[in-house]
Structure formats: C-alpha cells, structure tokens
C-alpha cells in the first residue's frame, strides 16, 4: 500500500503503465519498474515532433495509429476510460517500424464506466462533446467527468494532427489533396463538428484506404 500511495502522490504513471501494459498492445513504453522518483521504461523511439522531415506517407501511417490510440484509450478497457491531458507531438514517440508509444502519462483522467450515477450527475448517460471554451488546446475536465463518455481524446488527436499548432499532417502535399480532398475536409470536421465519433471512424477508413493505394504516392518521395 505504501508503494501505491507513493506512486499516487509523486507520479501515477507507473500505475497506468501496469494497467495498460505494452504486452497487451497498449501504445505505451515497456515498463521495467519504479523506485521513488526513478522510473525505468524502454526506449521506444524519437518524439514525433522531431520527425517533420519524414515522408508524408509515413506521417499518414503514424497519424492512423494516433487516431486508433485515441479510440482505444476511450473504449478498449473493460472498465475505465483514459483521457490523456498532455496530448502533444512531443509526448508520442515512434520507432523505426513506425510503432508509436505515448510517453507522458503523468496526467491522465481515469473515468469509471461502471458507476451508478446519483442525482449529482443528471447528465451521466449523455455523451459530452467538447465545448468551445477558448482558443487552442483548452478543455474542461469538470465537464468531461460529468458524463459517461467524452470525445476528449478524439478532439485532442485531431488537434495535434490538423489543428493550429504545427499539425503533423499539414501541409498536405498538393497532388494528394487533389486526388483525396476529403482528408482535409474530414479533419476540419473533426476539429469543429459535434459528432466526432462518426467523423473519426470516417477518417480511419479514409486513411486506411489511402495507405493501401500505392498509386497515390507513386514512386517519388512525397514530403
Ligand atoms: N520511453 C521513451 N522512449 C523514448 N523517448 C522518451 C521516452 N520517454 C520519454 N522520452 C523522451 O523524453 C521527453 C520527455 O519525457 P516526458 O515523459 O514527456 O517528460 P515531461 O513530463 O518532462 O514532458 C519526451 O518528449 C521524449 O522525447
Ligand atoms: Mg512530455
């Protein structure tokens, strides 16, 4: 108990890495152990923020995995949802196989899907869509915790991919935008519309389709 209390007080990341282990395909670093303030995890690659120079197709591949992860953190665990508070391209690393890991899990809201809401949570069974409460990367933890499901991870994933602050996927190469114009439209919809769950599923399909289309990228390197 002292060990758990220490982790909860100093940094809950080791707890998260054990609830969502890499061995069960969660996109997180392999966990080795913790002692006080020291945590040992595997090196899982370079931060995506430093991969601006890579081929655009690789970026697209990584983006697909980021979107899949946003859905998994929201839906995949039987009991809990994990809303990541520190979504940024610095906090996601990629290895040479383009496998991604979320490395900064100090700040995560864990929501229990199985609670029986009392009177203080009248809107629990309604979905919570992010409200526009300010420019840039802003959100309300209080509001997302009053609902059994929030689109926080989905919005945040779309924000780092296509939002205002050095988005991973932009600029979209002209030749690609000409033959696949809906990628841009869907990303804008994900950032601004209200049914992000539907839009995100569409983006996942659209990107899978693009990645399978060898002709789209040609033999030339598209950056
Ligand atoms: N497991 C890892 N594999 C590779 N790089 C990592 C790993 N963990 C952290 N890093 C690198 O170190 C940086 C800082 O780590 P992070 O956990 O995000 O700490 P901070 O809370 O200071 O942001 C990350 O942006 C990433 O570049
Ligand atoms: Mg960080």
TrEMBL record:
Pfam families: PIP49_C. The keyword NADP does not apply. Its main location: secreted. Signal peptide: none annotated. Residues 5-192 form the FAM69 protein-kinase domain. Keywords: Secreted, Signal. It is found in: Secreted. One of its GO terms (cellular component) is extracellular region. The keyword Metal-binding does not apply. InterPro entries: DIPK2A/B (IPR020519), FAM69_kinase_dom (IPR022049). Belongs to the DIPK family. This is UPF0672 protein C3orf58. It comes from Papilio xuthus (Asian swallowtail butterfly). The lineage of its organism: Eukaryota, Metazoa, Ecdysozoa, Arthropoda, Hexapoda.
